[in-house]
Amino acid sequence: MNFIYKMFFIIAVVFTSNVLAQDLTPQQAEELEKVEQLLRENPQLISNIHQGLQRFLEQQSDQQNAFSDHQEWLYQSAAHPILGNNDAMHKIIVFTDYNCPFCKKLEPSLHKLVEEYPSIQIVNVFVPLRQQQVDGLKTNSTLYGLNLWRNHPDAFFEAHNLMMKKSGMHTADSLQSVAQVTGTEAFLSPSDESEAVIRKNMSAFRDLGFRGTPTIIIGQQVTPGYIPYDKLEAIATKQFELD
Fold first, then answer.
1. Would you tell me which of 122, 197, 215, 225 could form a disulfide with 83, CB atoms 3.0–4.6 Å apart?
2. Phi and psi at residue 218, to the nearest 5°
């Protein structure tokens, strides 16, 4: 991390902590003193850092507004497939995709987390970023999965697990194979209801400024990309005060 980005990072951490000056932690106070000294020694950087910090804070504000706009859809809608107990106290939002290799890598950790912490529920918000239609079919893996969740939930998890275990992109053959194994061929056709869910999911994804999958929302923390189980568990227990 070069000099200017290091200073910007320290300032951003301090000023987005929602604390007053007298409430700074000893580490934050020490870092703030270092920043002040560095800026006094390099005054030519003040303008650029000030502008960058303003843009950063504006982006943070925009994201908070987007969270408010989409909170009910993400946390309360029955349209999203869930892992864990229906009445779990804590919810983790996972923007995911059946064609995303890192989403597939994350999947076992999500199952393990809800098994070890019954008070946690995983809300799967599907965004088909990598494939909107499968060649040879008028649908894709997300539409198929959402059709099952809404119309045949008893078969959803078997199909979901099979789709998550497949390496690479889904094809007409792979989806038809899953449908045959689970007896759900009738749900390979697209539906207006599932397409509407995807549009709302994509709207939330874009408005929140996310770029890829998986993106994980745990309490007040947003984590982009794959993380191993120990880190996932550590964030969840801290955010939900489960220690």
1. 122
2. -120, 105
The confidence score (pLDDT) of residue 58 equals 64
Cα 199 to Cα 20, 73, 150, 185, 195, distances in angstroms = 40, 12, 16, 24, 6
Residue linked to tokens 């987005």: 16
Decide if 164 contacts 104 (C-beta within 8 A): yes
* C-beta separation of 176 from 135 below 8 A: no
CATH number for the domain formed by residue range(s) 77-239:
3.40.30.10
The residues of the chain scoring below 70 in pLDDT are: 1-23, 56-62
Cβ–Cβ < 8 Å for 164, 144? no
Angle (CA) 173-174-180 rounded to 5° is 85
pLDDT given for residue 34 in this prediction? 82
In the predicted model, what is the mean pLDDT of the chain? Answer: 88
Selection from 199, 78, 104, 120 nearest residue 160 by Cα: 104
